[in-house]
Amino acid sequence: MEKGRIVILGAGESGVGAAILAQKQGFDVFVSDFGPIAERYKAVLVEKGLSFEEKQHSPTLILNASEVIKSPGIPDTVPIVKQLKAKGIAVISEIEFAKRYTHAKTVCITGSNGKTTTTMLTYHILKKAGLNVGLAGNIGNSFALQVATEEFDWYVLEISSFMLDDMYDFKADVAVLLNITPDHLDRYEYKLANYAASKMRITRNQGPEDCFIYCADDEETAKAMKHTKIQSRRYPFSIRKKIEEGAYLEGNNIHININQEDQLTMSISELALQGKHNIYNSMASGIVAKVLDIRNATIRESMGDIKNIEHRLEHVARISGVEYINDSKATNVNSTWYALESVNTEVILIMGGVDKGNDYDMLRDLVKEKVKAIVCLGKNNKRIHEAFEHDVEVIVNTFSAHEAVQVAYHLAKKGDTVLLSPACASFDLFKNYEDRGNQFKMAVKEL
């Protein structure tokens, strides 16, 4: 039986995964990428006999689709998407499509900051507890590919606002919203309320049997919740106040209480992931684990032995008493704020790249307090100079990771920290934030 034509826009991890699943489900599949397709993805498409085009979107091959799966990186404003919507053709995300073909339950984690760490930690706890669990979304292998090739009972999914925008019937069994801070506002008409509404879609379709875990200390989340009808059970977490059902910090101890008889208490000194932001991330993961009835001993052990993720406050080396930290994953101002907040020494800050309409004001106090020099790494550093010229004595422009590290090395004194935390996207000088982080690490190792 012919199921109809599925067109996939974007041939990256999510697009190729969606193509494989759609093919397996018996659809007529066509993949279209406006840019060149990476060799490793092209090889998969060829091997599977999937038809595709690159460096163009041909309307004649796309506008005859019964449904379109769009890569999260493609905005709704591109001409082909506008044409599809004008014709009334449904445009959905890979996550929406994949969920139709699995009975697995999902833990979905979103937020402006901390979602990768929280996703990794949650996955680590569930795996350690012996659950048959997959890891997907913004991280690892595509969800659709795993639905096509694996048989998991649970998935931990890292979900971005772009993915949420194209989700309609999808439901998270356990939804986590860590925080809402200005990010990607270029995609939301520069309105924080639009971005917040997008994040709240994580609770869409949830019923009383589902859970919504959120940060009680986050003002924007509180505002957004007032405008959202939430039907699931709510479990807040806070480091400022006592929470009856959820998690909170008291002194140096985290308390997680979902059912009163079996409360988990853990000292923050036992956490493998240190820093204030990681207390939040650990509380969120801990609530997920308790909701799934995972033993306290397993939760405690997992939170104590997880390894930090690459490119997120990753220790690279200590050279002549100077600490080098790779936080290349900090592609927005708020992430850089977290990074500065977690460092307790004087800092040589390497920042810059493609500015997404950044407001650097929130960094000002921390920069005054901790940063003695800024090394700009980007093609256009004008806005960084304008933002910090009165707060920092030295601001230097560099145009490669090697040059940035050399300059930082000469500016740093024993006891300082050289921190790569760009607050910007990487596409001006690098392939992506991983490439930027790897080049930084290589340059440090050459010192």
Automatic annotation (TrEMBL):
Localization terms from the record: Cytoplasm
Question: What GO terms are given for molecular function?
Answer: ATP binding; UDP-N-acetylmuramoylalanine-D-glutamate ligase activity
EC code: 6.3.2.9
Which GO BP terms apply? cell division; cell wall organization; peptidoglycan biosynthetic process; regulation of cell shape
Q: Which InterPro entries match?
A: Mur-like_cat_sf, Mur_ligase_C, Mur_ligase_C_dom_sf, Mur_ligase_cen, MurD
Q: Mur ligase central domain spans which residues?
A: 109-288
Q: Which residues form a coiled coil?
A: none
Its annotated pathway?
A: Cell wall biogenesis; peptidoglycan biosynthesis
Q: Which reaction does it catalyse?
A: UDP-N-acetyl-alpha-D-muramoyl-L-alanine + D-glutamate + ATP = UDP-N-acetyl-alpha-D-muramoyl-L-alanyl-D-glutamate + ADP + phosphate + H(+)
Q: What are the binding positions for ATP in this chain?
A: G111, S112, N113, G114, K115, T116, T117
What UniProt keywords are attached to this protein's entry?
ATP-binding, Cell cycle, Cell division, Cell shape, Cell wall biogenesis/degradation, Cytoplasm, Ligase, Nucleotide-binding, Peptidoglycan synthesis
Tell me yes or no: is Calcium among this UniProt entry's keywords: no
Q: What class of enzyme is it?
A: ligase
The chain positions of domain Mur ligase C-terminal read 311-424
Which GO cellular component terms, listed alphabetically, does the Swiss-Prot or TrEMBL entry include? cytoplasm
Keyword Ligase found: yes
Q: Which family does it belong to?
A: Belongs to the MurCDEF family.
Known NCBIfam families for this protein? murD (TIGR01087)
Its annotated function is as follows:
Cell wall formation. Catalyzes the addition of glutamate to the nucleotide precursor UDP-N-acetylmuramoyl-L-alanine (UMA).
Name recorded for this polypeptide: UDP-N-acetylmuramoylalanine--D-glutamate ligase
Write down the species: Pedobacter nutrimenti
